[in-house]
Amino acid sequence: MVAPFYDLLSAEYPVYRAGRRAGIAALAPRPGDQVLDVGCGTGLNFGLLRDAVGPAGTIVGVDASSRMLDQARSRVRRRGWGNVILLEADATTLCPQDIGARIAAAGGRELSDAALATYALSIMPDWENAWRHVLELSTPGAVLGVVDMQDTTGPWSVFSPLARLACRLGGADIGAHPWRAVERDCTDVVAGSARGGHLQIRAGRRRPGPGA
Protein backbone atom coordinates (compact mmCIF):
# COMPACT_ATOMS: atom_id res chain seq x y z
CA MET A 1 0.00 0.00 0.00
CA VAL A 2 2.94 2.37 0.48
CA ALA A 3 3.96 2.41 -3.19
CA PRO A 4 1.53 5.18 -4.34
CA PHE A 5 2.82 7.44 -1.56
CA TYR A 6 6.47 6.39 -1.56
CA ASP A 7 7.80 9.51 -3.26
CA LEU A 8 6.05 11.74 -0.71
CA LEU A 9 7.02 9.73 2.37
CA SER A 10 10.62 8.94 1.50
CA ALA A 11 12.20 12.34 2.31
CA GLU A 12 13.47 12.30 -1.26
CA TYR A 13 14.00 15.99 -1.85
CA PRO A 14 15.21 17.17 1.56
CA VAL A 15 17.61 14.23 2.03
CA TYR A 16 17.96 11.44 -0.50
CA ARG A 17 17.89 13.28 -3.83
CA ALA A 18 21.39 14.54 -3.08
CA GLY A 19 22.70 10.97 -3.09
CA ARG A 20 20.98 10.13 -6.38
CA ARG A 21 22.44 13.17 -8.09
CA ALA A 22 25.93 12.47 -6.74
CA GLY A 23 25.71 8.76 -7.60
CA ILE A 24 24.64 9.34 -11.19
CA ALA A 25 27.26 12.07 -11.61
CA ALA A 26 29.92 9.62 -10.38
CA LEU A 27 28.57 6.88 -12.65
CA ALA A 28 28.81 9.31 -15.58
CA PRO A 29 26.80 7.31 -18.13
CA ARG A 30 27.29 8.48 -21.70
CA PRO A 31 24.76 9.22 -24.45
CA GLY A 32 23.62 5.93 -25.95
CA ASP A 33 24.58 3.82 -22.92
CA GLN A 34 22.32 1.19 -21.42
CA VAL A 35 22.07 1.57 -17.65
CA LEU A 36 20.74 -1.12 -15.32
CA ASP A 37 18.87 0.41 -12.36
CA VAL A 38 18.74 -2.31 -9.68
CA GLY A 39 15.89 -1.95 -7.20
CA CYS A 40 14.53 0.93 -9.26
CA GLY A 41 11.40 1.36 -7.13
CA THR A 42 9.12 4.08 -8.47
CA GLY A 43 11.71 5.28 -10.98
CA LEU A 44 13.19 8.21 -9.08
CA ASN A 45 16.50 7.75 -10.92
CA PHE A 46 14.99 7.68 -14.38
CA GLY A 47 14.89 11.40 -15.13
CA LEU A 48 18.51 11.93 -14.11
CA LEU A 49 19.62 8.83 -16.02
CA ARG A 50 17.74 9.84 -19.15
CA ASP A 51 19.34 13.27 -19.06
CA ALA A 52 22.68 11.44 -19.26
CA VAL A 53 21.99 8.66 -21.78
CA GLY A 54 19.61 10.64 -23.96
CA PRO A 55 16.85 9.22 -26.17
CA ALA A 56 19.35 6.90 -27.88
CA GLY A 57 20.26 5.24 -24.57
CA THR A 58 18.29 2.69 -22.59
CA ILE A 59 17.31 2.46 -18.94
CA VAL A 60 16.54 -1.01 -17.57
CA GLY A 61 14.70 -0.86 -14.25
CA VAL A 62 14.48 -4.05 -12.18
CA ASP A 63 12.45 -4.34 -8.99
CA ALA A 64 10.88 -7.13 -6.96
CA SER A 65 7.73 -5.11 -6.15
CA SER A 66 4.95 -5.06 -8.73
CA ARG A 67 3.36 -2.10 -6.92
CA MET A 68 6.55 -0.06 -7.14
CA LEU A 69 6.85 -0.93 -10.81
CA ASP A 70 3.26 0.22 -11.38
CA GLN A 71 4.33 3.65 -10.10
CA ALA A 72 7.45 3.53 -12.27
CA ARG A 73 5.32 2.72 -15.34
CA SER A 74 3.06 5.66 -14.57
CA ARG A 75 6.09 7.94 -14.36
CA VAL A 76 7.41 6.65 -17.70
CA ARG A 77 4.02 7.14 -19.38
CA ARG A 78 3.62 10.67 -18.01
CA ARG A 79 7.05 11.68 -19.30
CA GLY A 80 6.66 9.91 -22.63
CA TRP A 81 9.93 8.02 -22.25
CA GLY A 82 10.13 5.29 -24.87
CA ASN A 83 13.55 3.97 -23.86
CA VAL A 84 12.78 2.54 -20.40
CA ILE A 85 12.46 -1.23 -19.91
CA LEU A 86 10.85 -2.39 -16.65
CA LEU A 87 11.20 -5.93 -15.34
CA GLU A 88 9.80 -7.51 -12.19
CA ALA A 89 12.51 -9.65 -10.57
CA ASP A 90 14.18 -10.14 -7.21
CA ALA A 91 17.81 -9.12 -7.68
CA THR A 92 18.96 -11.66 -5.08
CA THR A 93 17.41 -14.69 -6.77
CA LEU A 94 17.06 -13.80 -10.46
CA CYS A 95 18.71 -15.78 -13.24
CA PRO A 96 20.99 -13.36 -15.13
CA GLN A 97 20.63 -15.29 -18.38
CA ASP A 98 16.85 -15.10 -18.14
CA ILE A 99 16.89 -11.39 -17.33
CA GLY A 100 19.34 -10.74 -20.17
CA ALA A 101 17.03 -12.54 -22.57
CA ARG A 102 14.04 -10.55 -21.32
CA ILE A 103 15.94 -7.29 -21.78
CA ALA A 104 16.87 -8.29 -25.33
CA ALA A 105 13.27 -9.28 -26.09
CA ALA A 106 12.18 -5.81 -24.97
CA GLY A 107 14.61 -4.14 -27.36
CA GLY A 108 17.67 -3.69 -25.16
CA ARG A 109 20.99 -5.47 -24.93
CA GLU A 110 21.61 -8.46 -22.69
CA LEU A 111 24.52 -6.73 -20.92
CA SER A 112 24.49 -3.12 -19.70
CA ASP A 113 27.22 -0.49 -20.02
CA ALA A 114 26.57 0.76 -16.49
CA ALA A 115 24.65 -0.34 -13.42
CA LEU A 116 23.44 1.53 -10.37
CA ALA A 117 21.80 0.61 -7.07
CA THR A 118 20.50 3.52 -5.00
CA TYR A 119 19.21 2.79 -1.48
CA ALA A 120 18.38 -0.73 -2.67
CA LEU A 121 21.10 -3.18 -1.69
CA SER A 122 20.80 -2.42 2.03
CA ILE A 123 17.19 -3.63 2.04
CA MET A 124 18.20 -6.99 0.52
CA PRO A 125 19.18 -9.64 3.09
CA ASP A 126 21.57 -11.23 0.58
CA TRP A 127 22.82 -8.12 -1.14
CA GLU A 128 26.11 -9.80 -2.09
CA ASN A 129 24.15 -12.24 -4.25
CA ALA A 130 22.36 -9.32 -5.90
CA TRP A 131 25.74 -7.70 -6.54
CA ARG A 132 27.02 -10.86 -8.23
CA HIS A 133 24.03 -10.71 -10.55
CA VAL A 134 24.79 -7.07 -11.32
CA LEU A 135 28.29 -8.13 -12.38
CA GLU A 136 26.87 -10.85 -14.61
CA LEU A 137 24.48 -8.41 -16.27
CA SER A 138 27.20 -5.84 -17.01
CA THR A 139 29.69 -5.62 -19.86
CA PRO A 140 33.41 -6.06 -19.20
CA GLY A 141 34.63 -2.65 -18.09
CA ALA A 142 31.13 -1.43 -17.20
CA VAL A 143 30.85 1.41 -14.69
CA LEU A 144 29.10 0.30 -11.50
CA GLY A 145 27.70 2.50 -8.75
CA VAL A 146 26.16 2.15 -5.31
CA VAL A 147 24.47 4.81 -3.23
CA ASP A 148 23.40 3.74 0.24
CA MET A 149 23.18 4.74 3.88
CA GLN A 150 25.11 4.64 7.12
CA ASP A 151 25.09 6.49 10.45
CA THR A 152 25.83 10.19 10.22
CA THR A 153 29.34 11.20 11.27
CA GLY A 154 31.18 14.07 12.95
CA PRO A 155 29.03 17.01 14.05
CA TRP A 156 26.12 15.43 12.16
CA SER A 157 26.10 12.40 14.48
CA VAL A 158 23.39 14.10 16.52
CA PHE A 159 21.11 13.11 13.64
CA SER A 160 22.07 9.42 13.83
CA PRO A 161 18.80 8.47 15.60
CA LEU A 162 16.85 10.01 12.70
CA ALA A 163 19.05 8.22 10.15
CA ARG A 164 18.50 4.91 11.92
CA LEU A 165 14.76 5.51 12.13
CA ALA A 166 14.58 6.29 8.41
CA CYS A 167 16.43 3.07 7.61
CA ARG A 168 14.28 1.02 9.97
CA LEU A 169 11.06 2.39 8.47
CA GLY A 170 12.36 1.62 4.99
CA GLY A 171 13.51 -1.87 5.93
CA ALA A 172 17.19 -1.05 5.33
CA ASP A 173 20.16 -2.38 7.27
CA ILE A 174 22.15 0.74 8.16
CA GLY A 175 25.19 -1.40 8.88
CA ALA A 176 25.22 -3.25 5.54
CA HIS A 177 27.62 -0.81 3.79
CA PRO A 178 27.14 -2.38 0.33
CA TRP A 179 29.36 0.21 -1.37
CA ARG A 180 32.26 -1.95 -0.17
CA ALA A 181 31.53 -4.15 -3.20
CA VAL A 182 32.43 -1.29 -5.53
CA GLU A 183 35.69 -0.71 -3.66
CA ARG A 184 36.49 -4.42 -3.89
CA ASP A 185 35.41 -5.21 -7.45
CA CYS A 186 36.10 -1.98 -9.33
CA THR A 187 39.05 0.21 -10.29
CA ASP A 188 39.25 4.01 -10.51
CA VAL A 189 36.73 4.26 -7.69
CA VAL A 190 35.09 7.63 -7.10
CA ALA A 191 33.98 8.08 -3.49
CA GLY A 192 31.69 10.70 -2.04
CA SER A 193 29.25 11.39 0.74
CA ALA A 194 26.38 13.73 1.54
CA ARG A 195 24.08 14.73 4.37
CA GLY A 196 26.67 14.43 7.11
CA GLY A 197 28.01 11.12 5.85
CA HIS A 198 24.58 9.47 5.98
CA LEU A 199 24.66 9.02 2.20
CA GLN A 200 27.65 7.15 0.79
CA ILE A 201 28.42 7.20 -2.93
CA ARG A 202 30.82 4.92 -4.79
CA ALA A 203 31.33 4.31 -8.50
CA GLY A 204 34.09 2.57 -10.41
CA ARG A 205 34.97 0.53 -13.46
CA ARG A 206 34.38 -3.18 -13.16
CA ARG A 207 37.51 -5.26 -12.80
CA PRO A 208 38.01 -8.13 -15.25
CA GLY A 209 36.80 -11.32 -13.63
CA PRO A 210 34.27 -14.14 -13.80
CA GLY A 211 31.67 -13.42 -16.46
CA ALA A 212 33.79 -10.68 -18.03
Secondary-structure element string: HHEHEHEHEHEHHEE
CATH fold topology: Rossmann fold
Percentage beta strand: 15-25%
| Main β-sheet description | 7 strands, mixed
- What's the overall geometry? globular
Averaged pLDDT, please? 90
CATH H-level superfamily title: Vaccinia Virus protein VP39
Give helix % range: 25-40%
- Looking at the overall shape, the CATH architecture is 3-Layer(aba) Sandwich
Folded structure, characterized:
- With 212 residues, the protein is α/β, with parallel strands linked by helices.
- The protein has a single domain, classed as 3-Layer(aba) Sandwich (Rossmann fold), CATH 3.40.50.150.
- 37% of the residues lie in helices and 25% in strands.
- The chain is built from eight helices and seven strands, in the order ααβαβαβαβαβααββ.
- The chain has helices spanning 6-9, 12-27, 46-53, 66-79, 96-105, 127-136, 160-170, 180-185, and strands at 34-38, 58-63, 84-88, 112-118, 138-149, 186-194, 199-206.
- Strands 3-2-1-4-5-7-6 form a seven-stranded mixed beta sheet, with helices on both faces.
- Strand 2, helix 4 (66-79) and strand 3 form a beta-alpha-beta unit.
